[in-house]
Amino acid sequence: MTVLTAPGFSGAAPTLPSVAARLACRAGNAEQTAGLAPGYVQGNLAILPENLAASFHRFCQQNPKPCPIIGMSEVGDPKIPSLGLDLDIRTDLPRYRVWRDGEMVDEPTDIMAHWREDLVAFVIGCSFSFEEALMADELPIRHIEQGVRVPMYRTNIACAPAGPFAGPMVVSMRPLKPKDAIRAVQITSRFPSVHGAPVHLGLPQSIGIKDIAKPDYGDPVQIKDDEIPVFWACGVTPQAVIAAARVPFAITHSPGLMLVTDLKNKQLAVL
Amino acid sequence: MTVLTAPGFSGAAPTLPSVAARLACRAGNAEQTAGLAPGYVQGNLAILPENLAASFHRFCQQNPKPCPIIGMSEVGDPKIPSLGLDLDIRTDLPRYRVWRDGEMVDEPTDIMAHWREDLVAFVIGCSFSFEEALMADELPIRHIEQGVRVPMYRTNIACAPAGPFAGPMVVSMRPLKPKDAIRAVQITSRFPSVHGAPVHLGLPQSIGIKDIAKPDYGDPVQIKDDEIPVFWACGVTPQAVIAAARVPFAITHSPGLMLVTDLKNKQLAVL
Fold this sequence. Notes:
2 copies of one chain form a homodimer. The first copy, chain A, is of the alpha+beta class. Chain A is built from 6 helices and 11 strands. Chain A has helices at about 15-25, 50-60, 130-135, 140-145, 180-190, 235-245; strands at about 40-50, 70, 95-100, 105, 120-125, 150-160, 170-175, 200, 230-235, 250-255, 260-265. The interface of A and B includes residues 182, 202 and 206 of A.
């Protein structure tokens, strides 16, 4: 687990953009979190009962590329001070998904009614952070240009299993010119806690993708003649694994509605 | 120019493997330098009269990926102490090529008879160094497996010209599985003074390569169905540029017969 300390939050100091974004999410005023609080890390959420949390933690430990943990709570504690002093995991995402036995049973804007003393929250790094670094280097991000969701694919790359958690790695795809793909490997290698370097490029069929035009999640994007598809491990992997495990109880974020933290993306760079 | 200091050479100390290799070359006992003194940097050689050396130096400065200078001499001085205290550039390569007006006129085992007070020697990093790092990471190098020369191609990537020196970048190609190609980008990015990260991967036609099975220099190698071609800037570029410039006088190394230096490959790693 990456241990990072966020700047402190104090009522007397100017409000951080991330805190303002989180307060807006808490108040139910966010339709999506993409674009909120630029420069700040957003994360995927997975909440599990303590009796499953150890297995899930081990799953993440063994599969750090799709499941990089950037913060987690104590058992039963809805706070994660390392990601924001005021942060309350029960209220600070715009929308949640509540799962029972592998079925989504509720999609509430807070989980006060679902919180239990045995729950553990995991916050997992997301590609927004490395996309910001790619764009800062003026690399084009096709799905952002086209205004659609990133295309994602189930692969034939098996995650290392842990307890009930097992399944294939899900990857996101961004088409790039070869020289930009090389640059993207360099840039994203600096960000191991938000999926890091690509896991694959070119040759979609080598990782079990039969039709690049038909993603399993998200939307298809154009791949130009002078571009190759570049694949990164994706934070949808743990969500798919939790759903496939049909565990008695779990809570996740609703797609596109992430947790905004007080960590800055640049803090995640290892170099 | 990368400034590095080689370990000192003293008659009293145990002889470095690089010094032993250089003495063997000096005595004319080396048929090739590949495999000599493992761990030590080998370099391409280009020697030009002072009135052309400034332009050539500027060419290298502007094209650091194909022409990374790892050492150069003072005008008229055959020593390059930073690469080896005892090193004599006139005798320490197994074989040289002497060029007049763009034609090779001699291929001697030393250049004592050709040395002049106005000559400047440039030693340029070579791919042996990064191939050693790739193999240390257990990545396969196809031309080494097949026992042939690395395939090299003229591209449509124009070098930045300087004085009479101009022309396309020449690249070397190594086929790799996509995940190994990503790893190779990371590894070779650590070695900017020996060509650094690849300049291209996949899509040979994008850089003007019409038939990957017909290299312009070296030998063809097998590319398996699950591999992509990965292209690095190549030290043949400055040699091709010197030949194309048809300069009145130049000396280079003979292909495959490089200068063995006292620098260690691991010293060249920036991380």
